[in-house]
Amino acid sequence: MSASATVVASHGRSYAVELPDGVRLSATTRGKKTDLACGDKVRIKVLNAEQAVIEAIESRSSLLYRSDQWRQKLIAANVTQVLIVVAPVPSFSDELIGRCLIAVEAAGIRPLLLLNKADLPEAAVAHARLRFWESLGYPLLMLSAKADVTPLFPWLAEQTSVLVGQSGMGKSTLVNALVPTALARVNEISTALDSGKHTTTHATLYHLDDASHLIDSPGLQSFGLAHVAAGELPGLMPDLRPHLGRCRFHNCRHRAEPGCALHAAREAGLVRAERLALLHRLQDELALAASY
Ligand SMILES: Nc1nc2c(ncn2[C@@H]2O[C@H](COP(=O)(O)OP(=O)(O)OP(=O)(O)O)[C@@H](O)[C@H]2O)c(=O)[nH]1
Ligand SMILES: [Zn+2]
To answer: Which segments constitute the EngC GTPase domain (predicted)?
Structure first.
């Protein structure tokens, strides 16, 4: 029997898919190609009450992924919003936030920065650090997953959101607070995927209501952007964007070229030196990836 389904968990080559009536099956793909992400809409062939084979993947409205010179790591498909979760403790990385926001911009998805653990005394300093990202136009919400997640409700309504962030920021705590049945679900899916672990080792999709869905993803340590073209990078950085097209050379790489408008903006205090440094690091990584 052939049917439509949604990928609700992905872990390596193992998937869990959900039928329109809510029944979940474990599924594998045919052949070697396994470019599937949690949130993907697929056509499956049901083998029995527990198993299915994924036969085709439907076109995606969005795809969030990271990549290095060797491979792409799909994070989530068909999401409308990315929640970048940070916390005062353990300390978060601005480098990771900057990279993640470029991937989010490249994918055309709405971002929300979420500062969790607002109850900790270190939260004020973390909040002050995040004001930079807020000044670029990215919305920022501060809450405590342990105390109260209701401030998040209006943001989640009628969205398919994916939680991304470094390990330990509190993604699982957030999911457990938002989805009362989440823990049971995780155990059920872990069994289906035969991983035997109950930590966030794979992406999982939860339904908050009929129109609102939430995908949890494993903690990130790095965020490669080998899939973004070098020429597109500055246009994906909102602080650099207003200065583009004003360099002396139309093909300026914003490195040592004379008359570079981005360097002029940095000298005028309009652009942070770290942001140009990030652009240059990403350009170097792309050049390295291209040389393989
Ligand atoms: N004080 C405080 N601690 C929190 C809060 N939310 C989560 N924590 C704690 O932070 C630690 C990490 O939380 P997790 O939910 O496991 O973090 P995670 O982001 O899912 O981590 P990974 O599964 O490794 O990706 C746990 O000890 C939580 O109890 C909060 O709002 N306030
Ligand atoms: Zn330039």
So the answer is: 77-221
